[in-house]
């Protein structure tokens, strides 16, 4: 899966890793201290299964799985999340959501799903100046939509992270609502049109076909006085708009087709 990180209102490619004192590659989530919850995610035990790491310590592709470990301090077997080498997925992506900000307003940072079924794998958080911020690892698939509320942020700081057929994007919440409103209006229009009675739909089809045939015929019909049928029809329409009654039409025969043409006044 492709890897992405959301932090500070920006969505960037890759997830930052850290090299421990013992030389192991891992990722720290959350923070240590009062009100905090820190989680560690390690690489697979086999080095050949490690995700590729660039010179900046970033991974661009990774695969999540769970492996059993024996906790010598607790004396129990525990399951921990590890990362393995992966290749691009058509739609799925690995997303780290960090809602920490330098703001001192006591507004907790969080995120919530508003569409689809994003899967939470790592749940961690930090605590700073009375506000809680989360640092989670989520898998998002096609049609998944997430609303991110940054810690200490206002209404205009909220962002939408979406997955549309594998394309990952980030837009302001306000702009997203405008897009949804426009889509709903278009869908409502389509539903109303699809609910027309069959006879009404037939009338629409017949009218469109008649208009198409008229467009094909008009350039080929010419009156004896040099005035084209199209010009005469325009004159007749103008007369109708001015409140004048239509005259009885004459019949013009041309190329085995019969066309009704308004007579001269």
Topology (SSEs and partners):
Blueprint: E1 2-7, E2 10-13, E3 15-16, E4 18-19, E5 25-29, E6 39-43, E7 58-59, E8 63-71, E9 76-84, E10 93-98, E11 110-115, E12 119-122, E13 125-128, E14 131-140, E15 145-149, E16 159-164, E17 167-172, H1 173-194, H2 198-217, H3 229-241, E18 249-254, E19 257-262
Parallel strand pairs: 1-10, 6-9
Antiparallel strand pairs: 1-2, 3-7, 4-5, 5-6, 8-9, 10-14, 11-15, 12-14, 13-14, 15-16, 16-17, 18-19
Task: Give an overview of the whole structure.
The chain is α+β, with helices and mostly antiparallel strands and 265 residues long. It folds into 2 domains: 2-171, no CATH class; 198-262, no CATH class. The chain has helices spanning 173-194, 198-217, 229-241; strands spanning 2-7, 10-13, 15-16, 18-19, 25-29, 39-43, 58-59, 63-71, 76-84, 93-98, 110-115, 119-122, 125-128, 131-140, 145-149, 159-164, 167-172, 249-254, 257-262. The longest helix has 22 residues, at 173-194. The chain is globular. 21% of the residues are buried. Residues 212-224 and 232-265 have low confidence and may be disordered.
Q: Residue share in helices?
A: 10-25%
Please count the helical segments: 3
Number of domains: 2
Beta-strand content bin? 35-45%
Gyration radius, rounded: 33 Å
The rounded distance between the terminal residues' Cα atoms is 77 Å
Largest sheet: 6 strands, mixed
The total of beta strands comes to 19
- Average pLDDT taken over every residue: 77
């Amino acid at each position: 899966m492709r890897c992405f990180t959301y932090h500070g209102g920006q969505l960037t490619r890759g997830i930052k890793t850290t090299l421990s004192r013992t030389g192991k590659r891992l990722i720290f989530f959350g923070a240590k201290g009062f009100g905090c919850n820190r989680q560690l995610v390690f690489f697979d035990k086999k080095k050949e299964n490690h995700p590729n790491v660039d010179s900046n310590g970033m991974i661009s592709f990774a695969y999540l799985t769970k492996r059993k470990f024996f906790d010598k301090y607790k004396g129990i077997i525990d399951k921990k999340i590890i990362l393995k080498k992966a290749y691009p997925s058509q739609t799925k992506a690995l997303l780290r959501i960090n809602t920490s900000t330098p703001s001192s307003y006591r507004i907790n940072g969080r995120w919530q799903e508003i569409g689809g079924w994003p899967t939470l794998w790592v749940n961690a958080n930090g605590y700073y100046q009375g506000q809680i911020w989360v640092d989670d690892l989520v898998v998002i698939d096609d049609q998944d939509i997430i609303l991110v509320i940054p810690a200490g942020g206002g209404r205009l700081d909220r962002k939408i992270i979406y997955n549309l057929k594998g394309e990952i994007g980030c837009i302001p919440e306000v702009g997203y609502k405008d897009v949804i409103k426009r889509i709903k209006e278009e869908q409502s229009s389509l539903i109303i049109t699809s609910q027309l009675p069959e006879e009404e739909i037939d009338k629409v089809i017949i009218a469109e076909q008649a208009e198409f045939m008229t467009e094909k015929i008009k350039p080929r019909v010419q009156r004896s006085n040099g005035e084209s049928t199209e010009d005469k029809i325009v004159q007749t329409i103008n007369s109708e708009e001015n409140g004048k009654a239509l005259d009885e039409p004459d019949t013009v025969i041309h190329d085995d087709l019969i066309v009704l043409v308004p007579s001269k006044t």
